[in-house]
Amino acid sequence: MPFTAQEIANASNAALDFYIKGPALSQTIQDKPLLKSLQDNKKTFPGGKGNISLPVKGDYTTTIQGYNHNDTVTYANPANIKRVVYPWKEIHAGISFTNSELKIDGLSVVDSLDGANTTEHTDREMTVLTDLLDDKLEDMGEGYSRGMNTMLWLDGTQDAKQVPGVLSLITDTPTVGTTGGLDRATATWWRNRALVGANKITISVSSQTLTKTLRAEVRQLKRFAKNKAQYILLCGSGFLRGLEAEVFEKGIYTQQGFVNNGKNDIGMADISMRGVGDFMYDPTLDDLGYQYRCYFIDLNAIKLRPMEGEEMKKHTPARPYNQYVFYKAVTWTGGLTAQQLNTSGAYEIASF
């Protein structure tokens, strides 16, 4: 026998919906291997007028000369040092919240000047399903991380007040333009390697075009590498699919097999190619429309340089005297520099 309308209404009035307590489960947090790698290999600087300046050298004057008996010989006076400069920028991320919101959340402000400390109301757990203040702080942390990650990929044209990122250093057109103020057209040694656009690679599972090309490129990238280049190979999903198509066809490129080797704790399976390296998925490349690309980044040459004492600096500004609004913020000051370009490269495959 079906329920009557009166019985349904009575049940609705007698029962409550079941609400799960706890933090809101984020649906859109993804790995940020570029940000992690740059932060792990950062190098601080003390300050300065507005730029980070580095010495570089690619030309040589001295050469050899054959002589016999009293032949006249010549002497060179080398003067080939150049300097590249990169701007440092100031970055801010902040949130605001009102005293009323805290009261709704079962919290009282201890220090009413900046809202730095709060106390919980008695029986707060009876009314609070999700901690509003914790959620706002989590939003600031993830928002800061996302913003920094995107900024460190982009070339800086999106905002003149942000740090020019990897795409300003590893360019699609390395034979033209400037990097760090040094002209790549005249300084042929001041160029990254690039096979993109019209020069993109067309994969072939039978001919192994991509894997053979990458092996040849690694030899060139390591040709001038100082000490031992420390590479990260960051790829979009399309590039990895193309690489998988070739690598899995032959199945001989690693000694241990195609497994996650555990070297990079980014939550994604790697493809390891003996003699080349570990290819890691960077979801941001998909977001930027570069899903068919892979960037070989030499972390010995490309450095994140935060200013000493100015990285993730916390601020709790005083509230306005006539508003019960509180503020929290973090700031970061620094730049991204390259001291060598011919050890890094950009590679693209044709869509398939």
* Sequence of strands across the biggest β-sheet: 8-16-12-9-11-10
Largest sheet: 6 strands, mixed
Structural class: alpha+beta
Approximate helicity band: 10-25%
What are the SSEs and their pairings?
Elements: H1 5-14, H2 33-40, E1 51-56, E2 82-87, E3 89-98, H3 99-104, E4 107-109, E5 118-120, H4 132-153, H5 166-169, E6 178-179, E7 182-183, E8 193-195, H6 209-221, E9 231-235, H7 237-250, E10 271-273, E11 277-281, H8 283-287, E12 293-298, E13 302-306, E14 313-315, E15 325-338, E16 345-348
Parallel strand pairs: 8-16, 9-11
Antiparallel strand pairs: 1-2, 3-15, 4-5, 6-7, 9-12, 10-11, 12-16, 13-15, 14-15
Write up what this structure looks like.
With 352 residues, the protein is an alpha+beta fold. 23% of the residues lie in helices and 23% in strands. It has 8 helices and 16 strands. It has helices spanning 5-14, 33-40, 99-104, 132-153, 166-169, 209-221, 237-250, 283-287, and strands at 51-56, 82-87, 89-98, 107-109, 118-120, 178-179, 182-183, 193-195, 231-235, 271-273, 277-281, 293-298, 302-306, 313-315, 325-338, 345-348. The strands form 5 sheets. It has a 6-stranded mixed beta sheet, sandwiched between helices. Strands 3, 13, 14 and 15 form a 4-stranded antiparallel beta sheet that branches. The longest helix is centred in the middle third of the chain and has 22 residues, at 132-153.
